[in-house]
């Protein structure tokens, strides 16, 4: 079922709590884009972008990527025309309390 207007949903929870599963179901049933913060980070690292290189330094050490880096990546994706027009499910973001 396609929604009449863009909807924005944030799914937040503990590791392995079902965020991805629920996000995929919402994406499938309502036509929203599924935006997973972890997937965006890995894509930036794989593309070897400047921000991806910064993220990689933390990821290789098993540390959380700083909020400023994650916010930059997520904001860039949310400002894309398809996200604006179709709405989205944001999975795994925010990644910290701050």
Automatic annotation (TrEMBL):
Top EC category = transferase
What InterPro entries does its record include?
Answer: Adenylat/UMP-CMP_kin, P-loop_NTPase
* Keywords associated with the record: Kinase, Nucleotide-binding, Transferase
Tell me which domain of life the UniProt entry assigns to the organism this sequence originates from.
Eukaryota
EC numbers listed for it are 2.7.4.3
Pfam families found in the cross-reference section: ADK
- What Gene Ontology terms describe what this protein does at the molecular function level? AMP kinase activity; ATP binding
Would you identify the family this protein belongs to, as annotated? Belongs to the adenylate kinase family.
Protein known as: adenylate kinase
Q: Which organism is it from?
A: Musa troglodytarum
């Amino acid at each position: 079922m396609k929604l009449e207007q863009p909807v924005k949903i944030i799914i937040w929870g503990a590791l392995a709590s079902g965020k991805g599963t629920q996000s995929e179901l919402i994406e499938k049933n309502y036509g929203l884009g599924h935006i997973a913060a972890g997937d965006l980070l890995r894509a930036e690292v794989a593309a070897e972008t400047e921000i991806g290189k910064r993220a990689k330094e933390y990821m290789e050490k098993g540390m959380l990527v700083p909020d400023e880096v994650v916010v930059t990546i997520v904001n860039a994706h949310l400002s894309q025309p398809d996200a604006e027009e179709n709405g989205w499910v944001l999975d795994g973001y925010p990644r910290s309390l701050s």
